[in-house]
Automatic annotation (TrEMBL):
Biological process according to GO: microtubule-based movement
Domain of life: Eukaryota
Pfam families per the UniProt record, alphabetical: AAA_9
GO molecular function annotation: dynein intermediate chain binding; dynein light intermediate chain binding
Cellular component GO terms held in the UniProt record: dynein complex
Protein name listed in UniProt: DNAH1 isoform 6
Sequence ranges assigned to domain Dynein heavy chain ATP-binding dynein motor region in this UniProt record: 18-191
Source species of the chain: Pan troglodytes
Length: 192
């Protein structure tokens, strides 16, 4: 029954995911479906930056904020994304996350005067229900503590040999038979 669910997810999401630049190999689409239905924020192990590019394309029309932990004002950027319900991408993280992110990672919201709020650092901010967060790392084999692993959905986006084969075949078809590639793209768009 698990294969049926994966197949249904593959069919339902292949068009929109591919349009946003997700490679169309099975592992990439499965990872996209996991991201779509995860209850926790997703943390992509992404040494080839494929998830990073896909997220940027997928969320570009939604005002995606992109920042790094090393940015001086990353907490201010995070605060604005939460307050205004914007998606954010925290990219190129290492094996540790800033402890100030704890309430965001755990979605520790509460009601204050009828409004949903979250405490980020010393500041209580309104929590917009449309807020989304994605995290990526370029580390090929990161070692996360159990504390981090239980707070996030870890998705390994490392390119597999079969995924590489699928992507290379797609590029060869695009070069050798652009008419077939265009027909495929039109089918994906019409079915999306």
């Amino acid at each position: 029954s698990g294969d049926v669910l994966v197949a249904a997810g593959f069919v339902a999401y292949l068009g929109p995911f591919t349009i946003a630049g997700l490679p169309n190999d099975t592992l990439s689409v499965e990872n996209g479906v996991i991201n779509q239905f995860s209850q926790r924020w997703t943390h992509f192990i992404d040494p080839q930056s494929q998830a990073n590019k896909w997220i940027k394309n997928m969320e570009k029309d939604n005002g995606l904020d992109v920042f790094k932990l090393s940015d001086r004002d990353f907490l201010r950027s995070m605060e604005n994304a939460i307050r205004f319900g914007k998606p954010c991408l925290l990219e190129n993280v290492g094996e540790e996350l800033d402890p100030a992110l704890e309430p965001v990672l755990l979605k520790q919201t509460y009601k204050q005067q009828g409004n949903t709020v979250l405490k980020l650092g010393d500041t209580v901010i309104p929590y917009h229900e449309d807020f989304r967060m994605y995290i990526t790392t370029k580390l090929p084999n990161p070692h996360y503590t159990p504390e981090i692993s239980t707070k996030l959905t870890l998705i390994n986006f490392t390119l597999s040999p079969s995924g590489l084969e699928d992507q290379l075949l797609g590029q060869v078809v695009a070069e050798e038979r652009p008419d077939l590639e265009e027909a495929k793209n039109q089918l994906i768009i019409s079915n999306a």
